[in-house]
Amino acid sequence: MKKQFNLLPMTTYRWTKANYTELDVAAHVDASQLTAVWSQPEQVECVTGITTASLAFLRPQFRGADPETFAETMSDAAQQFKIVVPEDTKQQLRLNLTFTETQNHWLGAVVIDVRANAELALEIAIDNESKNDGRLNYAILSSVGDNAVLKITKVHTGVPLTTAIEHRYTRLNTASQAAFIGAEFGAERIIYHSDADLLGEASTLSEEGVYVANEKQHLDLYYDRNHFGKKTESHLATYGALRDAAKKVFRGCIDFKHGSSGAIGNEEDYVVLLSPQAKNISLPLLLCTEDDVQGNHASSAGQMDKERLYYLMSRGFSQEEAKRLVVEAMLRPVIDKIIADDLRETVLTAVETKMEAI
Fold it and tell me: What are 112-129's pLDDT values in tens digits?
């Protein structure tokens, strides 16, 4: 059965066929569920019975990328984890998800509670060693306390024969900070839904994403930033390249609610099209019910600069090498922000692999 994913909060004309993405997603297969591996399991509580009603910080209207698939992450079939970072402490964790021939499904939820003046750095490494169809469906639901910091870095690589769905919700309180980096190079279909409520005054959220999609990969990226508090700031930027018959949809919304005076919101989407068959749709959206705010959005999609290619080729690089260098140069500022050396090298290798034999 086909489902509607990443519905815009304020729809546009139906004939554009851009208000949502309709995909046929198979049901979760419990028998082939893989096991999540944590770097420091003693800091992670394996729990059961997490529901939307049991999470006081979760916005009641939050339904993720799709209500039905999000509800699966709240079911008894899901592996559920809770991370609590006590006040005035720091933690660093890594979640490893490796798909194999026999374990190629994962259904899970991670609930994060970063208390006041605390800090959590979470790395998520997703790799696919399976050649079979698989499915990844998980939620990351976070509450960031006063003056607390949450950093999440996700690197997804491997054979792109899975459907990957992530539902992410973040609640930010007074002067709290969240910074997200996402590198999407795995899965045949990637559905990413990131929703955030900036409730506390002077809270900030930064999110950056990079990708290179080839063959028939489909990326569906959705970002919603709700500014409630005064002097809140959100910054969003995605950079990527599409080749072959790959497709990417970007939906970004900044919503300045009444009372968010002094708030600033920026969203940017940049993509290079390396093939006539590649398709890109960008829908940056600004909503506002407050006067004293700043909202900016930018979107750019086009072919590679021929003069830049000519310059590199005149220096001895082949056309394929020149294209790879241009794409890597666009992605590198974000990649360099990945702290872990092994994850950063994994991303650089993925870029090189995706750009081979253009």
Answer: 999 999 999 999 999 987
| Nearest in space to 246 (alpha carbons), one of 211, 291, 213 | 213
Asked whether the whole model's pTM tops 0.90, one would answer yes
Q: How far is CA 233 from CA 108, 109, 153, 217, in A?
A: 30, 27, 20, 32
Sorting pLDDT into bands at 50, 70 and 90, what band is 30?
Answer: low
Helices 306-314 & 319-335 angle (0-180, nearest 10)? 110
- Supply 334's token pair: 């974000």
Encoding tokens for residue 339? 């702290």
Secondary structure (3-state) at 279: strand
Domain extent at residue 52: 3-356
List, in sequence order, every beta strand (DSSP E) within the chain: 2-5, 21-24, 37-38, 45-47, 79-85, 90-99, 105-114, 119-128, 134-144, 149-156, 162-172, 177-184, 189-198, 204-213, 218-227, 233-242, 247-256, 264-273, 279-288, 294-302
CA distance 189 to 215: 11
Identify the pLDDT of residue 67.
96
Q: How many domains does the chain have?
A: 1
Number of H helices, E strands in the chain: 4, 20
Q: Please choose, from the candidates 202, 48, 67, 62, the residue with its C-alpha nearest in 3D space to the C-alpha of residue 141.
A: 62
